[in-house]
């Protein structure tokens, strides 16, 4: 069985199979993951992202991002500066924070690489519809936590695994390779000594003490 890409445990088991892929679940952190040999290559992955039509002038897209923007912005101090990790081809969340008085850098490995931002400290970091794409979520999220200033916030938006995984549409996207449950985020918060707040079915805020 493949090791868990979040907690690195070998306590994984085969959980589900459909026509496209297999899914393994971790007994330690409850993450569900697609095995490495069934992930897309980088070119095929980018080809999927190139089809996304997310634009700053789309009010529906802004309303969607508001599910993360509103609870996080309400907790920021005046002048807080942040980073939108995985901004995608049409960065929008960073503009929403900037418009609210919170200057925000962007980083996206495919569309807006910004390695310098990953060496800096930030008051907040956002990852909207990003973590489900990560091949190494434990490593990446651990690095992002280290980029937070004391008291800083990590805001994540991703659908959490439902009871009926077999019928769940979210897993059908070929670029979605890891799936978090509430227990997965609880494990992450304990691992890095973070405060944790859930909002609805797809938003979580983690705060560095």
TrEMBL record:
<dbReference type="GO" id="GO:0032259">
    <property type="term" value="P:methylation"/>
</dbReference>
<keyword id="KW-0489">Methyltransferase</keyword>
<dbReference type="GO" id="GO:0008168">
    <property type="term" value="F:methyltransferase activity"/>
</dbReference>
<protein>
    <submittedName>
        <fullName>Class I SAM-dependent methyltransferase</fullName>
    </submittedName>
</protein>
<dbReference type="Pfam" id="PF13489">
    <property type="entry name" value="Methyltransf_23"/>
</dbReference>
<keyword id="KW-0808">Transferase</keyword>
<dbReference type="InterPro" id="IPR029063">
    <property type="entry name" value="SAM-dependent_MTases_sf"/>
</dbReference>
């Amino acid at each position: 069985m493949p090791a868990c890409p979040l907690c690195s445990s070998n306590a994984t088991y085969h959980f589900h199979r459909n026509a496209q892929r297999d899914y393994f679940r971790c007994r330690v952190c409850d993450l569900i993951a697609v095995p490495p040999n069934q992930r897309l290559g980088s070119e095929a992955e980018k080809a999927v992202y190139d089809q996304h039509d997310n634009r700053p002038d789309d009010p529906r897209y802004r309303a969607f991002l508001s599910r993360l923007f509103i609870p996080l912005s309400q907790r920021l101090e005046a002048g807080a500066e942040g980073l939108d990790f995985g901004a995608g081809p049409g960065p929008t969340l960073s503009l929403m924070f900037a418009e609210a008085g919170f200057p925000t850098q962007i980083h996206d490995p495919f569309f807006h690489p910004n390695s310098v931002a990953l060496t800096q400290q930030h008051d907040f970091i956002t990852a909207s519809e990003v973590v489900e794409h990560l091949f190494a979520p434990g490593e990446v999220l651990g690095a992002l936590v280290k980029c937070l200033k004391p008291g800083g916030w990590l805001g994540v938006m991703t659908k959490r695994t439902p009871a009926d995984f077999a019928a769940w549409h979210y897993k059908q996207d070929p670029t979605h390779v890891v799936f978090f449950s509430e227990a997965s985020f609880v494990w992450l918060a304990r691992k890095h000594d973070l405060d944790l707040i859930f909002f609805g079915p797809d938003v979580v805020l983690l705060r560095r003490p």
